[in-house]
UniProtKB/TrEMBL annotation:
Belongs to the transposase mutator family. Keywords: DNA recombination, DNA-binding, Plasmid, Transposable element, Transposition. The keyword Nucleotide-binding does not apply. InterPro entries: Transposase_mutator. Required for the transposition of the insertion element. Pfam families: Transposase_mut (PF00872). This is Mutator family transposase.
């Protein structure tokens, strides 16, 4: 379990305004549900290319919606990642109270 600490806390390296969005899988679950809903309407696919076209179309549609409407992560906050210093690249430590 101690070996997984760096992986579990990886989202802490991102700006604070993005952390709540990164540790949640809600958008991914919503996207998977939409893909399943669209695939269920078709029922049986004639070939693999038709599956790729349908799922690709769903993913492109979702991408367009997020680009135009939601701006899920602010660009200004992501710019903070490019200005990281050597001090910030040290692994995060859990305080005894949090552990």
């Amino acid at each position: 379990m101690d070996d997984a600490e760096a992986d579990v806390l990886a989202y802490m390296a991102f700006p604070s305004q993005h952390r709540t969005k990164l540790h949640s899988t809600n958008p991914l679950e919503r996207l998977n549900k939409e893909v399943k809903r669209r695939a269920d309407v078709v029922g049986i696919f004639p070939n693999e290319d038709s599956i790729v076209r349908l799922i690709g179309a769903v993913l492109l549609e979702a991408n367009d919606e997020w680009q135009l409407q939601h701006r899920y992560m602010q660009i200004e906050g992501m710019a903070e990642l490019n200005t990281s210093t050597v001090e910030e690249e040290k692994p995060l430590q859990i305080t005894p109270k949090a552990a």
